[in-house]
Design a protein that fits this description.
Blueprint lengths: L1 E7 L4 H14 L3 E7 L4 H7 L5 E4 L2 E5 L4 H11 L1
Parallel strand pairs: 1-2
Antiparallel strand pairs: 1-3, 3-4
Amino acid sequence: MRALTLYSRQGCHLCEDFLEALSPLIRGRARVDVTDIDTDPGLVAAYGVRVPVLCDGETLICEAFVDDRAVREHLDATD
């Protein structure tokens, strides 16, 4: 199963809402690995206040809010 990465922060309500909205879109097609950017200075430098950010490897899928269309199109293209 494909693994997507959600760059996040502890206590980020936008990140929690993002994950909640994302879950039904990817069910059965991918899993989400949540990465707390504050555990890695390189990730803090890369993402700063831009979280939540959803990526598949180096490919950015969407950020700030779940883009249903972008997620579906990405999964369809990579299946």
